[in-house]
Amino acid sequence: GIQVEQSPPDLILQEGANSTLRCNFSDSVNNLQWFHQNPWGQLINLFYIPSGTKQNGRLSATTVATERYSLLYISSSQTTDSGVYFCAVLFGNEKLTFGTGTRLTIIP
Amino acid sequence: EAEVAQSPRYKITEKSQAVAFWCDPISGHATLYWYRQILGQGPELLVQFQDESVVDDSQLPKDRFSAERLKGVDSTLKIQPAELGDSAMYLCASSLLVSGANVLTFGAGSRLTVL
After folding, report:
1. Which of A97, B6, B10, B93 shows the greatest Cβ crowding within 10 Å of its Cβ?
2. How many domains does chain A have?
3. Which residues pair with A48 in a beta bridge?
4. Using one digit for the tens of pLDDT, what is the confidence trace for B44-101?
5. What pairs with residue B10 in β-bridges?
6. How many C-alpha atoms does A76 have within 13 Å on its Cβ side?
């Protein structure tokens, strides 16, 4: 099946800093989503981004499908950004496969 | 904003007991998913429904797990008997087709602890 790797596994930053999270995948995909899992466990949909660039406030994402990676940018981090960030990809008719996540901790 | 509803949020049970989780997807979402997330890992698909039909249950431990979506709307996931290794977060999601791809929205999850 398709392999999804995220880096870094852990990231600790001071409030106000910027961060870049990376998702590498092993095959061409027709669906890629970024999620934020909050401390209570809920997965919040951030972006549906199989290719190109999108922005939503302080967050933006870029997927370069031909090179099989996606990046999530967080600018001016806030403590509420803490949690685990997952990318999830889907290839063809296979099931959505999640990466191992990046745990982000924002220190006040 | 429309949400995926799940209940209960938390469940503590003893091994060998039965447990059930309920999910009500966003209205109009034909596809419904149950995922299991073990602490420290990403979610893994247990079962996927398209309306009332099972599309994928290849990772569902069918000796103890069952899932149904009888009227193609809400769904129930049951575990009987529960085992210690079933302790996890059980996540329900529903999806809408966007440009031909399923874009998932998740509920708040049901956290199961088996003692």
Report:
1. B93
2. 1
3. A33
4. 999 999 999 999 999 999 999 999 998 889 999 999 999 999 999 999 999 988 777 7
5. B111
6. 2
CATH, residue A16: 2.60.40.10
Share of chain A above pLDDT 90, in %: 79
Q: B39 at the A interface (CB within 8 A)?
A: no
Q: Mark yes or no for CB contact B48/A95 under 8 Å.
A: yes
What contacts A29, CB < 8 A, 6 or more positions away?
A: A2, A50, A65, A68, A89, A90, A91
Res B4: pLDDT: 96
pLDDT tens, A67-103? 999 999 999 999 999 999 999 998 776 678 899 999 9
A39 touches chain B (CB under 8 A): no
Residue of B42, B101, B109 lying closest to A99 (CB–CB)? B42
**Contacts A–B by Cβ distance under 8 A:** 52
Asked if A101 lies within 8 A of B42 by C-beta distance, the reply is yes
Its domain, for residue A83, covers 4-107
How far is Cα B75 from Cα B36, in angstroms, rounded to an integer? 15
Q: Which of B93, B102, B96, B98 is nearest to B25 (CA)?
A: B93
**Residue B102 predicted with pLDDT over 90:** no
